[in-house]
Amino acid sequence: MADTPHNTAGSTRHASTEASDLSGGVIFAGVLMLTVGAMSILVGIAGIAEDDVYARVGDYVYEFDLTTWGWIHLVLGALVALTGLGVLTGAAVARGVGVALAVLVAIAQFMWLPYQPVWSVVAIAIAVFIIWALTTDTGRKRAF
């Protein structure tokens, strides 16, 4: 049978979860999630391994022990990286989880601002882009 255009009015297209259905913005968001996740893991390891890696902050409302911050960044980074991999493979649930984790990353980076101000601002901007890309993509049809 030859490849010819066909009328899709009578047929329904099932939502595909293949990576080829992803738009450029979603692919970029997935790559950014892998990158931010990996960097958060490294920040977490540094915070856990040595409490003197980051400068101590004076009185700060959201002050935690640096080891606690290290664990927060390590766990959150691992979750973000795994979810980024899920986004790149086209897993349907990964997009919703990705938005939720990007919100958590933005909040955690806001709270981490006094320790690493430049990286925190950059990470918040990346999280906002990830949220935007995962929520505004119209490149593929959704099952819900």
Structure description:
The protein has helices spanning 24-49, 66-89, 92-112, 117-136. It contains four helices and no strands. It is mostly helical and 144 residues long. The chain has one domain (20-54, 62-136). Helix 1 packs antiparallel against helix 2 (66-89) and helix 2 (66-89) packs antiparallel against helix 3 (92-112).
Attribute tags:
144 residues; mainly alpha; 4 helices
Tell me the number of helical segments per DSSP (H or I, 4 or more residues long): 4
Share of helix among residues? 55-70%
**Global Rg:** 19 Å
- Beta-strand residue percentage: under 5%
Pattern of helices and strands: HHHH
Query: Which residues form runs of ≥5 with pLDDT under 50?
Result: 8-19
Mean pLDDT: 81
Task: Indicate the topology.
Layout: H1 24-49, H2 66-89, H3 92-112, H4 117-136
Outline of the structure:
Helices cover 63% and strands 0% of the residues.
